[in-house]
Amino acid sequence: MDYKWVSLSLLCAFSLASSDALAKKVLEDGSEYLVAWLRLVFTLPLLFIAWFYIPVPPLDNRFYEAFFVALPVELITVVLYIKALKASPLSLTLPFLAITPVALIIASYVVLGEKVSAVGGAGICLIAAGSYVLNIGRKKEGFWAPFMAIAKEKGSVLMICVAILYSITSSFGKMAIEHSSPLFFGITYFTALTVFFTPVGLWKARKEWRLFPWSSNLTNLVLCGVFYGIMVIAQMIAMHLTNVAYMISVKRISILIGVAYGYLFFREGNIKERFTGALLMFAGFVLVVAA
């Protein structure tokens, strides 16, 4: 088995978690629309550098269909994702991205005809089960209390929506990659995403520009974009090399890293139960890789 996709997926996970932690830091001072837009903008230089090293592949109708189905859904996820980061602790939002691989079992089968093995499916389900443990402290209030606690946390609800939408964009993204090339799709897709999000970001953040403390946040914003750009490149290549559900499952190790960031940099509470839930997700990752 070629494990190159695993290394790329782990790089993707680390880069995404680092970008999210930096975005969370900047969100303490700024509008979520401003931060979301600038994260995309500062992603572009790295993508444009990569552009010079790849040829333009032949494109067909399937590429354009997948591209333009995924793009509007991705625009929605950009807004919901950054709102979730601002609304709630990292350790209560990022873990719910684990729902994406479960949704992908259905989405990738419908869109791509991909199937997962029994072991891989067990790993994906174990990743999702960790979400229950995040609020296990509420279990004394009843079996369903941990799930009820999720509904009361705005950031968690928003991230669940993001996770489900990601199953759609990931599946159509894989289709677009198969009808072009990994880097070509990643560069053109996120460039288009930035272009279409620009009027939304500028309009929504029109009152924030003068009030935003640029001097203390610019470095974090640039690094946020750079890490996001690395994530994009690593993800596109990894998705080309393996089953999309497996790749996204390994990428979700960003959850474990994100929980650690939440404790180290934001002093978030209840870290034991949240880290236990994240470790369950890591066990699921091991099963996915072994499948």
User: In this structure, how is the largest beta sheet organized?
Assistant: none
| Amino-to-carboxy terminus distance | 10 Å
Percentage of residues in strands: under 5%
Find the count of extended strands (DSSP E, 2+ residues).
0
Topology pattern, helix = H, strand = E: HHHHHHHHHHHHHH
Assign a percent range to the helix content: over 70%
Integer count of domains: 1
Silhouette: globular
Features:
single chain, 291 residues, mainly alpha, 78% helix, globular
Task: Explain this structure.
There is one protein chain. This protein is mostly helical and 291 residues long. The protein has one domain. It has helices spanning 4-27, 32-41, 44-51, 61-87, 90-93, 99-112, 118-133, 145-152, 154-178, 182-204, 214-241, 244-251, 254-266, 271-290. Helix 9 (154-178) runs antiparallel to helix 10 (182-204).
Task: Please specify the SSE layout and strand pairing.
Elements: H1 4-27, H2 32-41, H3 44-51, H4 61-87, H5 90-93, H6 99-112, H7 118-133, H8 145-152, H9 154-178, H10 182-204, H11 214-241, H12 244-251, H13 254-266, H14 271-290
Helix pairs in contact: 1-11, 1-12, 1-13, 2-4, 2-10, 2-11, 3-10, 3-11, 4-9, 4-10, 6-7, 6-9, 6-12, 7-14, 9-10, 10-11, 11-12, 13-14
In short:
By secondary structure, the protein is mainly α. It has helices at 4-27, 32-41, 44-51, 61-87, 90-93, 99-112, 118-133, 145-152, 154-178, 182-204, 214-241, 244-251, 254-266, 271-290. It has one domain (4-290).
